[in-house]
C-alpha cells in the first residue's frame, strides 16, 4: 500500500469533526450523516470501477451480479460535487439516498436522510473531504472498508455506553474469527451491533482465496432500529448482503434459530438485568435451564449454543464473572460442560473495549467435537498479557498476536498452524515441532474431571498457572526502596488532604451553628 491508510483515516476524521463543531446536531447524532457520506462515496467508487469493466450501457442486474450496488445518476457522488454554488446540498444528498434505496431493496429505509438539517457551509467541505476518487490512488484492497470501521470505532469511543452497543474492537473480532474458521455456511449473531462479526468473517474467507458472497449467508438481530441500519450499511460498504432484523433477542427468535446455524458469533451486553423471566420460562432456546439470578449472561450463552447445528461452532464474549458464577448459573455451566460442546476458554486483557475497562472471557463452543478425542477436554488460554498499548486507556492485539493465539487452537484441534503475519519463529520456539503442549501461564488442556474438581469453573487463570519469571534486570533492593519512598510520599499527601478536609468541615459546622452560613451552602 503506497499510501498510509492511518493518515487518510485521521485526515478524514478531522474533516468529520468539523461537522460536530459547526452543526446543530448533538454529539451523539453526527455519526449518522458522516457514516452515510462515507457509504455514499464508497458506493460510487465501487460503481465507477465496475462500470469501467462492464461498460456505460450495463444494466443494474449486471452490477448486482458483480456484488456492486447500482447507482442511478442522481445518487452519484461526482454529481453532488459538481452541483453549483447555492444549490441545496442537504436536499440533494437526501435525494441520492432515496434513489439508492429505490434501486436496492435490502437498503430500503436504512440510509440516513437528515442532511437537510445541515448548512451548505458544513456539507460542502465534508463532501470534498470524502471524495474517494482523490484519495483512491495508493489505497488498495479493502482500505475503504477499513476507513468505515475506523469511523465506527472512533464514534464508539466518543459515544460511551451507546458506542459499546454497536462496536466490538476489531482485533478481538479477528481473534474470534481466526479460531472459529468460518469457511462456509450460515452465520448468526443475535446481538450483531454494526455487523463487525460478519465483516471479519467475510475478510477471513477472502484471505483464504474464496468469495465470501458465495460462501457465507449472514443472519443478524439487534434491538434498536438505528443499530440495525448501521449493520446493513456496514455490510453494504463491504459488498455483502444479509438478513439483519430488529428484535429483542430475549423475547423474540426472529430467525427461528434452534439448530439452524453453522457458526454463531456474538458480543452480547454483559450482566443485563430486569429480564421478564415469566415471559421466557418455556423458551426452547434454554435447554439447560432458566437462571434464577437477575442476570442475562446464561441466557445469551444458551441462545447461542442452541442455535448451532450438529457440527456448529460458536464464539461468545462474556463477562469474566460468568466463568465462576455460582448457584443456578453454575448448574447450567456444569450441564453445558457435560454436554461436550464447550471447547476453548480464552481470557482477554483489560481495556480492549472502549466502554468497559474490565477484561472479558471468550467462550468457544463446538458441537463437532462430540464423539472425538476432544469431547472430554477444554483448552484454556490466558491472553491477559497479550496486547499492545494504543493509548493510556486503550489496548489492542496485533495481527501477529492474534495469529499466535489462533495457532494454539489449531494445534489443539490437530490442525496445521498458519503463518501469514510473521510469528513463525516465536511460535515454533514455544511449540517445538508445531505440536501442542501445555505452557505455564499461557495454555492448558484440562479434562472434565479436572474441571469438576474446580467446581465447574471455566476461568482460565485456575488452570494455566503462571509463567516462570526471568531474573529481573534491576537491583531489587534499590527498586524496593524507591517504591517505599513513593508510598511514604503518597501517604503523607493523603494525611495532609484528610487534615484539610477535617478543618473545612469543622469550619463549616461552626458557621452553621453561628447562623452565618448562607442559603446556597445549605442547598
TrEMBL record:
Segments forming a coiled coil: 480-507
GO MF annotations in UniProt: DNA binding; N-methyltransferase activity; site-specific DNA-methyltransferase (adenine-specific) activity
One Pfam family this sequence matches: N6_Mtase
Domain N6 adenine-specific DNA methyltransferase N-terminal: 9-130
Record flagged with keyword Ribosomal protein: no
DNA methylase adenine-specific domain segment(s): 141-468
PROSITE patterns: N6_MTASE
Database matches in InterPro entries: D12N6_MeTrfase_N, DNA_methylase_A-5, DNA_methylase_N6_adenine_CS, SAM-dependent_MTases_sf, T1MK-like_N_sf, Type-I_RE_MTase_Subunit
E.C. designation(s): 2.1.1.72
Gene3D superfamilies in alphabetical order: 1.20.1260.30, Vaccinia Virus protein VP39
Keywords, comma-separated and alphabetical: Coiled coil, Methyltransferase, Restriction system, S-adenosyl-L-methionine, Transferase
EC top class, as a word: transferase
Catalytic activity: a 2'-deoxyadenosine in DNA + S-adenosyl-L-methionine = an N(6)-methyl-2'-deoxyadenosine in DNA + S-adenosyl-L-homocysteine + H(+)
GO BP term, pick one: methylation
Family in the record: Belongs to the N(4)/N(6)-methyltransferase family.
Protein name: site-specific DNA-methyltransferase (adenine-specific)
Amino acid at each position: 500500500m503506497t499510501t498510509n491508510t492511518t493518515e487518510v483515516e485521521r485526515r478524514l476524521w478531522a474533516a468529520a469533526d468539523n461537522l460536530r463543531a459547526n452543526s446543530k446536531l448533538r454529539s451523539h447524532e453526527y455519526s449518522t450523516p458522516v457514516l452515510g457520506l462515507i457509504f455514499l462515496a464508497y458506493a460510487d467508487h465501487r460503481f465507477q470501477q465496475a462500470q469501467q469493466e462492464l461498460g456505460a450501457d450495463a444494466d443494474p442486474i449486471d452490477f448486482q451480479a458483480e456484488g456492486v450496488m447500482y447507482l442511478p445518476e442522481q445518487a452519484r457522488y461526482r454529481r453532488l460535487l459538481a452541483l453549483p454554488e447555492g444549490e441545496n446540498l442537504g436536499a440533494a444528498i437526501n435525494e441520492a439516498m432515496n434513489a439508492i434505496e429505490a434501486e436496492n431493496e435490502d437498503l430500503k429505509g436504512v440510509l440516513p436522510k437528515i442532511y437537510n438539517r445541515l448548512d451548505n457551509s458544513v456539507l460542502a467541505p465534508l463532501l470534498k473531504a470524502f471524495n474517494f476518487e482523490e484519495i483512491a490512488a495508493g489505497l488498495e484492497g479493502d482500505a475503504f472498508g477499513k476507513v468505515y470501521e475506523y469511523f465506527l470505532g472512533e464514534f464508539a469511543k466518543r459515544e460511551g455506553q451507546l458506542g459499546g452497543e454497536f462496536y466490538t474492537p476489531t482485533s478481538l473480532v479477528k481473534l474470534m474469527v481466526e479460531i472459529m474458521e468460518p469457511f462456509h455456511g450460515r452465520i448468526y449473531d443475535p446481538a450483531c451491533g454494526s455487523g463487525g462479526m460478519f465483516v471479519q468473517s467475510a475478510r477471513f474467507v477472502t484471505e483464504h482465496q474464496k468469495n465470501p458472497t458465495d460462501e457465507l449467508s449472514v443472519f443478524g438481530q439487534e434491538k434498536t432500529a438505528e443499530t440495525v441500519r448501521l449493520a446493513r450499511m456496514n455490510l453494504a460498504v463491504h459488498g455483502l448482503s444479509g438478513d439483519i432484523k430488529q428484535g429483542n433477542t430475549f423475547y423474540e427468535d426472529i430467525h427461528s434459530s434452534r439448530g439452524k446455524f453453522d457458526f454463531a458469533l456474538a458480543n452480547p451486553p454483559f450482566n443485563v438485568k430486569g429480564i421478564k423471566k415469566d415471559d421466557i420460562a418455556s423458551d426452547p432456546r434454554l435447554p439447560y435451564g432458566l437462571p434464577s439470578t437477575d442476570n442475562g449472561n446464561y441466557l445469551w450463552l444458551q441462545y447461542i449454543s442452541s442455535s448451532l447445528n450438529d457440527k456448529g461452532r460458536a464464539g461468545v464474549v462474556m463477562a469474566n464473572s460468568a466463568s465462576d458464577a455460582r448457584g443456578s448459573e453454575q448448574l447450567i455451566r456444569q450441564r453445558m460442560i457435560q454436554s461436550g460442546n464447550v471447547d476453548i476458554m480464552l481470557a482477554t486483557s483489560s481495556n480492549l473495549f472502549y466502554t468497559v475497562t474490565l477484561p472479558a472471557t471468550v467462550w468457544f463452543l463446538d458441537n463437532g467435537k462430540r464423539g472425538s478425542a476432544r469431547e472430554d477436554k477444554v483448552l484454556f488460554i490466558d491472553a491477559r498479557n497479550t496486547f499492545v498499548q494504543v493509548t493510556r486507556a486503550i489496548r489492542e492485539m496485533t495481527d501477529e498476536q492474534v495469529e499466535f493465539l489462533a495457532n494454539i487452537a489449531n494445534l489443539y484441534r490437530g490442525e496445521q498452524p498458519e503463518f501469514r503475519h510473521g510469528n513463525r519463529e516465536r511460535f515454533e520456539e514455544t511449540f517445538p515441532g508445531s505440536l501442542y503442549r501445555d505452557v505455564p501461564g499461557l495454555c492448558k488442556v484440562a479434562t472434565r474431571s479436572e474441571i469438576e474438581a474446580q467446581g465447574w469453573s471455566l476461568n482460565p487463570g485456575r488452570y494455566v498457572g503462571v509463567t516462570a519469571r526471568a531474573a529481573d534486570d534491576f537491583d531489587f533492593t534499590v527498586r524496593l526502596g524507591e517504591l517505599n519512598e513513593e508510598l511514604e510520599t503518597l501517604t503523607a499527601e493523603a494525611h495532609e488532604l484528610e487534615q484539610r478536609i477535617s478543618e473545612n468541615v469543622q469550619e463549616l459546622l461552626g458557621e452553621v451553628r453561628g447562623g452565618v452560613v448562607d442559603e446556597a451552602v445549605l442547598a
